[in-house]
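I have been asked to look over a protein record a colleague put together. Alongside the sequence sits a line of tokens, each denoting a local backbone shape. I have pasted the whole thing underneath without changing anything:
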Amino acid sequence: MVYKYDFLVIGSGIAGMSFALKVAEKGRVGIICKTGIEEANTFYAQGGIASVTKPTDNFEKHIEDTLICGGGLCNRQAVEKVVREAPAQIEELVNWGVNFDMGAQADRRAAPAECDN
């Protein structure tokens, strides 16, 4: 059997799935994954998403927390880009129908002391 696709995505994590959703209206998309579509770190992630979502929060705190938790291994420019673009990316995920747990623990923010590095 021969399959023909316009786009071939390797991996079913958030990056691969996001790309697949974005290009789906432009052509046929094939996704290659480990053993099943759910076999990705994104599917098993339980730590939540850290992002500036309220006026009482700010980007600089998130950037510094990420750099501290990264133990010196993070590229500052990459961290700044990811942190500043996170609110728009989360909004896009919500618009796609991703369900986030908004329960009592949803507002809890990890302090740098809780990092495993």
Q: What stands out?
A: Confidence is low (pLDDT under 50) at residues 108-113. Residues 48-117 form one domain.
